[in-house]
Each structure stands twice: as structure tokens, then as C-alpha cells.
Automatic annotation (TrEMBL):
Name of the protein in its database record: Carbohydrate ABC transporter permease
TM region positions: 12-36, 81-101, 113-133, 161-187, 208-232, 270-289
Localization of this protein: Cell membrane
A UniProt-annotated Pfam family: BPD_transp_1
InterPro entries, per database record: ABC_transporter_permease, MetI-like, MetI-like_sf
Primary residence: membrane
Lineage of producing organism: Bacteria, Bacillati, Bacillota, Bacilli, Bacillales
Record membrane topology: Multi-pass membrane protein
Keywords assigned by UniProt, alphabetized: Cell membrane, Membrane, Transmembrane, Transmembrane helix, Transport
């Protein structure tokens, strides 16, 4: 009996081992190394890395430091994107899931595939597609506007159009993931609850509010948190579509961190900014969990 138990534990551990090795190699060790960098003055061109303690972190909160400016400017722009994108990612994702679950099986499979396909392509492909559509001078949409004698729209070079373009591109690209998660959650809701509510005279809206939403609440919390984290890590869309413009209005925090690391060559400052960004995301996620628990 003891041998069988040990054999079972060893077998289970072997299944976990590849993931554990990859986790340690590509996530845990880089995080520790980044934390070590953040305590040093780490110039890429200088082989000497002087230990400075918390100085790199203090620069973030020192109003006379340029690090303070680029960190909080990037953080503000990142928060803007999160506020604009997350509600749409949840509402549109849930709306599409509700529509697809009410379609015939053959059609639902087709539309599920169609909406999920963009999620499988890279951000560079997404940017190229939307640049082709939205370029101010040669974009397809503006060409049609000119043919209709309508004024062209500076989709990528003026506000609020730059944010609208980035959010729409992100929505098109990632909505399929949330939609699939919501479809799986909706399929788990008991049909008996819907039948009982119909017998009691509840209409569709009442069934949605009092049965559907409470039943998928754990999934909703998961989608809110993952969408917030993903939106907080936005980089490719503004970098490839607007280059952070107009001016620095869409230059998000990750763009400033990459700038500091590879253009200014200051890896210590960049590491400190990255860890502060990670801490902010952790705090936001914990707050979201606490709020959902309180409502429960």
C-alpha cells in the first residue's frame, strides 16, 4: 500500500515537473534578478553595477526626478486604457456569449470560431490590420469617407480618436477569449432554474438579472481580474499604432519602462518601475477580490 502511494506521488510530481522547471526558469528567476537589478545603478554600457539600495524607488516618488514624471504619466495613460477597455471587454464578451448560446448548435460553433480567430494572431498582425483600416492619409475607412464627401478622421493622430482606435483594435483582438469563458459558464447554469422562473412569470431580463448573473459570478470575477491585468500590461497596440502619440497622450507605462531600459540604458530604474507596476496590479486585483467577496 505504501509503495503504491509513493509511486502515485512520484508519478504526479513528474507530470508537474516540466511546468515547475519552466516556471522557475522563465518567471521566478527573472523576477528575482529584476528585483536585484532594482537595487543597483545598472547602466548597460557600464560593467560596474553600484548598489544604491532603495534610491531607484525613491526617484519614482521624487517630484524633481524625471523618473517620477515618466512613471506617473505612463501610469495615468495606462489607467485610462484600463478604464476604457475593461468594461467593454466584459459587456461585449458577455453579450456575444449570450447571443451564441441562443443560436442553433451548427451556427453557434461557426460564430464561436469566427469571433475567437483574432485572438490567435499576434499583436503585430493586429496592428497592421488596423493601421491599414485607420491610417489618416491612406486608411480604408478614410478613403470611403472621402468618396462620400465626408471629412476624414485623424484616427491615430488626435484625441479622442487615438484612444478609440486602440480600444477598438484591442476589443476585436481579445474579445474571443472572454466570450469563450462566458459561454462555458452559461452552459453550466441549470436549465431547471430557467424553467422554474418561467413558470413564475419572470421575463428574460428578470431571468438574466436574478439567475444568469448570480450563477456566473465566479466566472465574472475571474474575467474582470484577468481583463484588468491584461489591459494594464498593454504595450503592442499603442506602440505599433500611435507610437504613444499624439505627443505622449497614449504612451503607456510599459512603453516608458522599455524606453528607460533600452534607450536610456538604465536597467536599475526600469526594474524598479516594473516592480512598482506589478505591486499596483496586485493591489488592484486584491481590491477587486475583496469587493466581490463583500458583495457576496
Amino acid at each position: 500500500m505504501y509503495k503504491n502511494t509513493m509511486k502515485s506521488k512520484i508519478t504526479s510530481s513528474l507530470f508537474v515537473l516540466p511546468y515547475l522547471v519552466l516556471f522557475i526558469t522563465f518567471l521566478f528567476i527573472p523576477i528575482l534578478y529584476g528585483a536585484w537589478m532594482s537595487f543597483h545603478e545598472w547602466d548597460l554600457l557600464n560593467p560596474e553595477h553600484t548598489f544604491v539600495g532603495l534610491e531607484n524607488y525613491m526617484k519614482i516618488f521624487d517630484s524633481s526626478s524625471y523618473i517620477n514624471n515618466i512613471f506617473f504619466e505612463g501610469l495615468f495613460n495606462t489607467f485610462q486604457f484600463v478604464i476604457y477597455s475593461v468594461p467593454l471587454l466584459i459587456i461585449v464578451g458577455l453579450g456575444l456569449a449570450l447571443l451564441i448560446t441562443n443560436l442553433p448548435r451548427k451556427l453557434s460553433g461557426l460564430f464561436r470560431t469566427v469571433y475567437f480567430i483574432p485572438y490567435s494572431v499576434s499583436v503585430s498582425v493586429v496592428a497592421i490590420i488596423w493601421l491599414w483600416l485607420l491610417d489618416t492619409n491612406s486608411g480604408l475607412i478614410n478613403q470611403y469617407l472621402m468618396k462620400l464627401n465626408l471629412p476624414i478622421i485623424p484616427w491615430l493622430t488626435d484625441l479622442p480618436w487615438a484612444w478609440i482606435s486602440i480600444v477598438v483594435a484591442t476589443l476585436w483582438w481579445t474579445i474571443g477569449f472572454n466570450m469563450v469563458i462566458f459561454i462555458n459558464a452559461l452552459n453550466e447554469v441549470s436549465e431547471d432554474l430557467y424553467e422554474a422562473s418561467s413558470l413564475d412569470g419572470a421575463n428574460r431580463w428578470q431571468r438574466f438579472i436574478h439567475i444568469t448573473l448570480p450563477s456566473i459570478k465566479p466566472t465574472m470575477v475571474f474575467v474582470v481580474i484577468t481583463s484588468t491585468i491584461a489591459s494594464f500590461n498593454v504595450y503592442g497596440q499603442p506602440y505599433l499604432m500611435t507610437r504613444g502619440g499624439p505627443g505622449t497622450e497614449t504612451k503607456v507605462l510599459l512603453m516608458n519602462i522599455v524606453d528607460e531600459a533600452f534607450n536610456q540604458r538604465q536597467l536599475g530604474n526600469a526594474a524598479a518601475m516594473s516592480l512598482m507596476m506589478a505591486l499596483i496590479m496586485i493591489v488592484i486585483s486584491v481590491v477587486q477580490l475583496k469587493i466581490s467577496d463583500r458583495k457576496e
